[in-house]
Specification:
The chain has 335 residues and is of the alpha/beta class. The protein is built from ten helices and 13 strands. The two termini are 18 Å apart.
């Protein structure tokens, strides 16, 4: 029988594909165009966020502080790649979200499982273009695509079909995605895992099972409690798969953004350590807005990994403007 041998979590922010100079200057301009949410889930402008920033906000965004955070997350990503490789996995389930990359509002599944033989990531010249005013931002986004030619990454179709059938049997109404058309490629939640963790020096090209969770797009984002039940069900189905394989699972995305909420992030990390699924399942939905919605993927991973221990976590509150906008960048390994 299969076993869930390891689980992981990783932010996938464009910050992680950016250079130090972008951290120091670029985000201070680009953040002024974003929409933010307060702790009650109400939308706020950058100007409103700046107006309520604490008096000592400048201390968080000195060149020294930002440089230290940049180096910290670069080392965390290198370590996570080593952790994934060292786990000797036969397949990696990637739980991520789709931001109008494969799915549009005309048909937006709450949860989907991909069961193709392979999944394509486009070469940069074939990828959809980004049209932000800042060239550095467009350049960072393009790093999530392939340098020269399209890549067709291997998937584990038998396990994917086993999960789909088992989820339907347990009354989860999942979308089953058989493949992509010629204009489509995997979204950034999945290409980030491929390009940063499953290739490069010493890395192993592991077959994947992409799972889509609609964290971002109303009106059918799954409730945190539904995510917790989904994660527990994944664990059961993995253990029932008849082949003797080592399975890993990674949550792609999160934590809080585009306003760093350290108290929220640290409470989640503490709950992960305690295996407190009750706390995670009862998170207030209005706190899971915009990028913070990707915390749902971590709930799924935590619920699947209850037989494992959280043996390593790296958390960096990546403040980037005087309004203290930014992202809680987090990386973890259960084993």
């Amino acid at each position: 029988m299969a076993q869930l041998a390891a689980a992981f979590g990783s932010s996938h922010s464009v910050m992680l594909a950016s250079e130090l100079g972008d951290w120091l200057k670029g985000f201070r301009q680009s953040d002024q165009r974003l929409t933010y949410y307060d702790r009650e889930g109400r939308p706020r402008s950058y100007g409103e966020m700046l107006a309520c920033a604490p008096a000592d906000a400048g201390a968080f965004i000195t060149e020294e502080a930002i440089t230290g955070r940049f180096n910290e997350v670069q080392e965390a990503m290198r370590r996570l790649r080593r952790e994934i490789t060292a786990s000797k996995l036969d397949v990696l389930i990637v739980v991520g979200d789709d931001q109008h990359e494969l799915f549009q509002d005309q048909h937006m599944p709450s949860i989907g499982v991909y069961y193709g033989e392979s999944i394509r990531n486009a070469a940069q010249r074939n990828a959809r273009r980004f049209n932000w005013p800042e060239e550095w931002y467009n350049r960072a986004q393009m790093r999530r695509f392939e340098d020269e030619t399209d890549a067709h990454y291997p998937c584990h179709k038998p396990l994917a079909l086993h999960l789909i059938e088992g989820l339907v049997e347990r009354e989860f109404d999942v979308a089953a995605v058989a493949g992509l058309d010629e204009t489509q490629s995997e979204g950034h939640a999945y290409s980030f895992v491929h390009r940063w963790y499953l290739q490069g020096e010493g890395a192993a090209m592991i077959p994947v099972v992409p799972i889509f969770v609609n964290t971002y797009n109303p009106p059918n984002q799954p409730h945190p409690g539904r995510c917790e039940r989904f994660g527990r069900t994944l664990k059961t189905l993995i253990e029932q798969y008849p082949e003797n394989i080592r399975v890993g699972l990674i949550a792609s995305g999160g934590l809080s953004h585009f306003t760093v909420e350290e108290d929220l992030d640290r409470s989640i990390i503490d709950a992960l350590r305690r295996k407190d699924l009750v706390f995670l399942s009862r998170l207030e939905r209005h706190r899971l807005k915009a990028g913070s919605s990707e915390i749902r993927n971590w709930i799924i991973a935590a619920a699947a990994a209850t037989d494992l221990e959280l043996i390593w976590v790296s958390y960096t509150p990546a403040y980037r403007t005087p309004a203290l906008t930014g992202i809680g960048l987090c990386f973890a390994r259960w084993g």
